[in-house]
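User: Design a sequence. Structure:
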């Protein structure tokens, strides 16, 4: 079983269900549920997912997604001062935005497959440069 880090935007699109790649996002998450990968997430993922799902679908849906994350995630990467410092340098090295750098640092630290919906501003900046597998959900198999 391989480690995988999934950007919060994949969880959000999967849960909302009405976005262009929602079904592809569900496929990625199902691969974790099927035991093909074990999930590693930075703790900031909780904030992103709960905030967005609660905002768009209501507090009950946010709570459900929170419980799903607690159940699915095998390793939580704590966003403490040392980790965030390292993520800052990673972001500077690869030209990524701050929050994207936290997900990238998580994936790099654990040599994990990384999946994000953010194609132009993130995925294309790192693909082929970071030494790990990186995918858009539409390309994940």
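Assistant: Done.
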């Amino acid at each position: 079983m391989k480690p995988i880090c999934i950007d919060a935007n994949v969880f959000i699109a999967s849960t909302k269900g009405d976005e262009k790649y929602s079904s592809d996002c569900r496929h990625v998450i199902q691969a974790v549920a099927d035991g093909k990968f074990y999930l590693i997430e930075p703790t900031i993922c909780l904030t992103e997912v709960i905030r967005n799902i609660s905002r768009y679908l209501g507090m009950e849906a946010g709570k459900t997604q929170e419980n799903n994350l607690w159940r699915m995630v095998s390793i939580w990467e704590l966003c403490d001062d040392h980790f965030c410092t390292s993520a800052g340098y990673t972001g500077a090295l690869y030209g990524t935005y701050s929050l994207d750098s936290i997900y990238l640092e998580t994936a790099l630290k654990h040599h994990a497959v990384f999946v994000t919906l953010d194609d132009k501003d993130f995925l294309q900046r790192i693909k082929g440069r970071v030494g790990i597998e990186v995918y858009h959900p539409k390309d994940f198999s």
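The mean pLDDT is 96. The longest helix spans residues 44-57.
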